[in-house]
Description:
76% of the residues lie in helices and 0% in strands.
Amino acid sequence: MGTVDSADSAIGFRSERGPILAALMLSTGxxxxxxTIIATAVLSITDSLGGFSQFPWLFSIYLLAQAVTVPIYGxxxxxxxxxxxxxxxxxxxxxxxxLCGLAGNMVLLIIFRAVQGIGAGAIQPMTMVIAGDLxxxxxxxxxxGYLASVWAMSAVLGPLLGGVFAEYVSWRWxxxxxxxLSAVAGWMLLRSFRETAPRTRTSVDYLGAGLLTxxxxxxxxxxxxxxQAWAWSSPxxxxxxxxxxxxxxxxxxxxxxxxxxxxxxxVFTRRVVIASSLVSVLVGxxxxxxxxxxxxFTQGVLGTGALVAGLxxxxxxxxxxxxxxxxxxxxxxxxxxGTALIxxxxxxxxxxxxxxxxxxxxxxxxxxxxFLVGAxxxxxxxxTLIAAQTSAEWAERGVVTSANMFARSLGSAVGVAVFGAxxxxxxxxxxxxxxxxxxxxxxxxxxxxxxxAVVMVAASAMMPGRAVVDPAAVK
Length: 475
C-alpha cells in the first residue's frame, strides 16, 4: 500500500514516518506561504511596475497553471510514483520564484507567476496523496492537525513577511524567500521518502491537458479583459468565450477516447467526488476573493499599511487551520456531511457579515469576518477531500485527489477573474482608484462571495452521511 509499514500506527515526528511527515509539512509550507505573502504586496508591486488593472492576473495565471497541471501530475503519480512528481514540482516552483524576484515589468512577472503555478500544481496535491498513502482514515484525522499547523504558521508569517518586505526591504523578497525553503524541502524528501508502492508506466494524455489549458485560459482571458480591453458585447469577447466553449467540448470528446485521460470522466460519476469537487470550486473562489481584495480594501479604503493589511486578512488563514485541526475528530464522530454542513454554515455567516463592511468599519470587524469564513473553510475543505480519497484505491487516489485540487484551483482562477471583472468595471483604467470608488467595487466582491457560500451549503448536503470504506484501513 505505502512506503512504510502500515502496522506502525504512531503519529508524530518521533515515529517511523516522522521524517516524511516533516518533509510533507515543509513542502506544504511552500504553497501555504506563497498563498498568504503576495496579497499584502499587491499595491507595492503595482506602484513599482504599474498595471493595477492587471494585478488579478498575478493570481489567475498562477492558479490557471496550477489547475491545468494538477490532473497531469495526478496521472503521473499513479504511474511513475509520487516522489519524482513532488520533487519536480519543488524545482519548478523554485525556478519560478527566482524569475519572479528578478522580473522587470508586470508582463514578465505575470509570465513567471505561471512558472510558479506549474510547480505548485505538483506540490500541493502530492503532499495530500502521500499522506493518503501513508496513513489510514483514523490516522489522517491526527495528521490533519500537523498539516493544518503549517497553514496556521503561514497565516501569521506570510502577511508579516509580506508586509515587512513590501514596506522595509523590497517586494521582490516575497518570491526570493522561497529559494532556501525549496532547497530544504527537496533535500528532506530525497533523504527521508523511500517509495515502494506499485506503479505502472503508461502514456500521459498531453493532448487533453493542452485542450484543458486552452479552454480554461480562454475563459480566464475573457473574464479579466472583458469590459477593459474590449466591450463585453464585442465580437472579440463573444469569439473568445465561444472558442473556449468549443475547445471544452473537444476536450470532453478527447477524454472519452483517450487510453489514459488526464481527467478521467469516471470521476464525475461518483457522488462523493462530484460533491467534494463542487465544494472545492467554491472554497477556491471564496478564499481567493477575500485574500485578494481584503488587503486592497484595508490599504486603499481604510488607509492602513501593507503589514497591517496582511495581518487583517491573516485572520482568515488563521481560522482555517485552527478549525481544520479539530475537523478530523468531528467527521469521525458525526460523518462527512454533518461536518461539511457545519463548516459551510460558518462560512456563510462570515461571508454575510462582510456585507456590513464599509468605509467606516474597523480593522477588528474586517478581521472577525475573515476569521469566521476561515473557520468554516477549515471544517469543510479537508473533510470533503478525505471523503473522496477514502473512496479510491491506491491507483485511483492520485487522480481523485488531483481532481479535487484541480477544482479548487480552477475555482480560484475563475473566481478571481470574475471578481477582477467586477472591480475593474467600477474603477476603470486607473492605478490609484479613489477610496469611495474602490470601496463600492470591493463591496461587489463581498456580495458575490456571500452568494457562493450559500451554494456551498447546498453542495455540502450532497456529501455522504457516513464515512465510505477506506482501502488503506483494511489492508
